[in-house]
């Protein structure tokens, strides 16, 4: 039935919505049409108020509270004109999800009538009942409330849909004592830190022109699409977002015929609609294509400043899911929905820039500019080597464990790819002797005499977790389902520390004498290369040889969440976060606790579902088939024909194994006294996950034996190829 419905959905598919078309709707007409953006504000707000708001946005300084009233009034008028009845403070709790609490504009006037109410107070601060969001001990349970605070730097917008339209206000979510309970607050703090350290660094090179140094993010989002009929027939997909059972299909991705292939038409219609929705919200989505696995796709926006890009990525994820439904499809954001098939990640393209200088990771045209470029790149090498374990911890989730280190995603070892030419230049600096004589066999590349660097050296490496790609670094280990905030916060924090380190070291040598800058720079880079240069690796990250080589170099290989998360409370990590005012010790410990809890909950849910599906879906269908085989054997015997009992005995054997492995899993799950969340997680990694796989192995073998018409779960083949 499921199969027939899905096939009918594909073959009978006719477009219901007129696709977007730029001759009828111009790009400017649609882009940002549901955003309370600068243009709208300029039109609606008194001049001085608009100016004051812009100054706040551009300088990152505190807002004059007096301007909130007029802004709230304009926002209300605009939202109501767009059809909104409600408003919501949107916030990003530590679950990584997007949370909303809706309030109506309608307010009774006390005389039997009502009016639309929305003022400065309601704009600036909200109080969601947030007791069920994780706080990791930061908020005693009796003090359930946290509050949401308007993030002036990101624009409010309208979410318009057939089921109701409402105004969304981006907010930070904070406890009454001021602790960050969300993903946005630390990002705003880390942005401030990088601005300060970045400007100090630019100042050293005479390039601080008074403008903010901002961090940018360009997240490439991967996802799977499958027909909703299949989705609803698979409790594992519905509840966990990934298949807990399923035999390998006869045709997988071996042929690589999906990658960059023609996009199926229902999918194309879906993509166009996703894009239209996102354009309206001012999300600059740009690229779309098929990904490596069948049924897998990618959407990528043009990069933006990190805070905006992070909110926009959350909107992209929400929109993919919502629009999927309208097209009869389910969008899976899980990192590994199908075993044996490529998983989904999110490449986080990272750079630092100023409005006039552009990306600080762009090699310049002159050797002098290149000195600054080499210095910031060296600072990055140092940061990534020194805090590699932290970066690994920011991408540690139950889902991502299935992907990292498999032969498709970067390995769990954090290394940097620089590309041949750039790596060579850093080698030269490391080898070069500073007195100016030629080191034996090595060309001396003093910073003063650097050759112009290649703008885009063209060589690319898909296997590195942290790759230089011409004018940015690409952090490829982020999971498809994760918020990009965690990694972005970590990068900004460790880069602040590293830039300050560079400045300190260089200043120690120059003592303010600009003539000494280039030799000082060279000396500091050389020192960094000697201490941290082993993090550079330009080879094949998938090869076994790299695992061994990395071990020799002393690079950590943290394979699982359980190995990675403890680094969040590593002394050095806690110190750098608190030194830069990004997260306090308490806030780091709470995150450590919450992320472990989340891991445990995920595995708990999955294991419970493995038992349930094995017992109530797979076992019964196999028993039915066993009955059919037994009945056939009996009737053959009655007719005087000797039946061959091979299949029946093999099936019976597997049935017993299924029961045995399921019982073994249940027994392990019964253990529930643990001293800490960490101990529990370790138990789940070492014992529960393998026991789940034992059940799966038997069940998948049964899938290959039981009559197809009796098998209840849609197969990999069907889910991946019918679309
Ligand atoms: P590829 O798949 O080839 O790596 P894509 O075009 O899919 O590239 O995505 C690249 C992403 O990197 C885009 O989001 C793009 O806007 C972003 N990007 C480009 N330049 C920068 C930069 N300087 N800083 C941050 N992100 C950038
Ligand atoms: Mg891409």
Q: What features would you describe in this structure?
A:
There is one protein chain. This protein is of the alpha+beta class and 723 residues long. It has 3 domains: 151 residues, Glutamine synthetase, N-terminal domain (Ubiquitin-like (UB roll), Roll), CATH 3.10.20.70; 383 residues, 2-Layer Sandwich (Creatine Kinase, Chain A, domain 2); 124 residues, Four Helix Bundle (Hemerythrin (Met), subunit A) (Up-down Bundle), CATH 1.20.120. Strands 9, 10, 11, 12, 13, 14, 15, 16, 17 and 18 form a 10-stranded mixed sheet that branches. Strands 1, 2, 5, 6, 7 and 8 form a 6-stranded mixed sheet that branches. Helix 12 crosses helix 15 and helix 15 packs across helix 16. The chain is globular. The protein starts with a helix and ends with a helix. About 2% of the residues have low confidence. Bound molecules: adenosine-5'-diphosphate and magnesium ion. Adenosine-5'-diphosphate binds next to strand 9, strand 11 and strand 14. It comes from Pseudodesulfovibrio nedwellii. Belongs to the glutamine synthetase family.
């Amino acid at each position: 039935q499921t199969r027939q419905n899905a096939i009918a959905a594909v073959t009978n598919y006719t477009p219901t919505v007129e696709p977007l078309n730029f001759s009828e709707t111009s790009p400017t007409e649609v882009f940002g049409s549901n955003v309370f953006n600068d243009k709208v504000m300029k039109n609606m707000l008194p001049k001085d108020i608009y100016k004051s708001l812009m100054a706040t946005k551009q300088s990152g300084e505190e807002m004059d509270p007096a301007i909130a009233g007029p802004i709230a009034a304009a926002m209300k008028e605009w939202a109501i004109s767009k059809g909104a009845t409600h408003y919501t403070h949107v916030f990003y709790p530590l679950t990584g999800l997007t949370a909303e609490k809706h309030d109506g504009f309608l307010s009774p006037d006390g005389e039997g009538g009502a009016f639309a109410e929305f003022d400065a107070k309601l704009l600036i601060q909200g109080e969601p009942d947030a007791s069920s969001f994780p706080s990791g001990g930061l908020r005693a349970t009796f003090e359930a409330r946290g509050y949401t605070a308007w993030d002036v730097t990101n624009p409010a917008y309208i979410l318009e849909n057939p089921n109701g339209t409402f105004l969304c206000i981006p907010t930070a979510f904070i406890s009454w004592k001021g602790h960050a309970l969300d993903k946005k607050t630390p990002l705003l703090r880390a942005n401030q830190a990088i601005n300060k350290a970045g400007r100090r660094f630019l100042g050293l090179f005479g390039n601080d022109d008074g403008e903010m140094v901002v961090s940018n993010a360009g997240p490439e989002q991967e996802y799977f699409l499958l027909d909703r009929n299949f989705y609803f027939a698979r409790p594992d997909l519905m509840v966990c977002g990934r298949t807990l059972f399923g035999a390998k299909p006869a045709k997988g991705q071996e042929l690589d015929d999906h990658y960059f292939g023609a996009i199926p038409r229902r999918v194309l219609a879906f993509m166009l609609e996703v894009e239209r929705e996102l354009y309206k919200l001012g999300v600059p989505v740009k690229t779309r294509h098929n990904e490596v696995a069948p049924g897998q796709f990618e959407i990528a926006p043009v990069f933006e400043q990190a805070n905006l890009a992070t909110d926009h990525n959350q909107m992209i994820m929400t929109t993919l899911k919502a629009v999927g439904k309208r097209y009869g499809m389910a969008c899976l954001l899980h990192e590994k929905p199908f075993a044996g098939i490529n998983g989904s990640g999110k490449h986080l393209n990272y750079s630092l820039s100023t409005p006039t200088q552009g990306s600080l990771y762009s090699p310049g045209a002159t050797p002098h500019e290149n000195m600054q470029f080499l210095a910031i790149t060296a600072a990055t090498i140092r940061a990534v080597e020194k805090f590699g374990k932290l970066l690994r911890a920011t991408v540690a989730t139950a889902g991502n464990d299935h992907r990292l280190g498999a032969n498709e995603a970067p390995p769990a070892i954090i290394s940097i790819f620089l590309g041949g030419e750039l790596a060579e230049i850093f080698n030269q600096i490391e080898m070069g002797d500073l007195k100016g004589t030629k080191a034996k066999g090595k060309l001396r590349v003093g910073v003063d005499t650097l050759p112009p660097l290649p703008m885009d050296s063209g060589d690319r490496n898909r296997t590195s977790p942290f790759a230089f790609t011409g004018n940015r670094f690409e952090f490829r280990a982020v999971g498809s389902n994760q918020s990009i905030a965690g990694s972005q916060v970590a990068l900004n924090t460790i880069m602040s520390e590293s830039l300050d380190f560079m400045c300190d070291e260089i200043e120690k040598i120059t003592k303010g004498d600009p003539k000494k800058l280039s030799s000082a720079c060279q000396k500091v880079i050389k020192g960094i290369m000697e201490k941290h240069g082993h993090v550079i690796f330009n080879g094949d990250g998938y090869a076994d040889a790299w695992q061994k080589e990395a071990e020799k170099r002393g690079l950590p290989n943290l394979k699982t969440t359980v190995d990675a998360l403890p680094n969040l409370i590593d002394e050095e990590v806690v110190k750098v976060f608190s030194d830069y005012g990004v997260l306090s010790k308490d806030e780091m410990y709470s995150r450590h606790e919450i992320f472990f809890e989340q891991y445990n909950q995920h595995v708990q849910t999955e294991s419970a579902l493995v038992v349930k599906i094995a017992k109530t879906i797979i076992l019964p269908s196999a028993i039915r088939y066993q009955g059919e085989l037994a009945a056939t054997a009996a009737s053959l015997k009655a007719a005087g024909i000797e039946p061959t009992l091979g299949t029946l005995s093999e099936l019976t054997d597997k049935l017993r194994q299924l029961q045995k492995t399921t019982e073994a899993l249940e027994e392990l799950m019964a253990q529930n006294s643990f001293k800490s969340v960490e101990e529990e997680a370790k138990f789940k990694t070492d014992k529960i996950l393998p026991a789940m796989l034992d059940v799966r192995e038997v069940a998948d073998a049964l899938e290959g034996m039981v009559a197809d018409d009796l098998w209840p779960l849609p197969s990999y083949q069907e889910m991946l190829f019918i679309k």
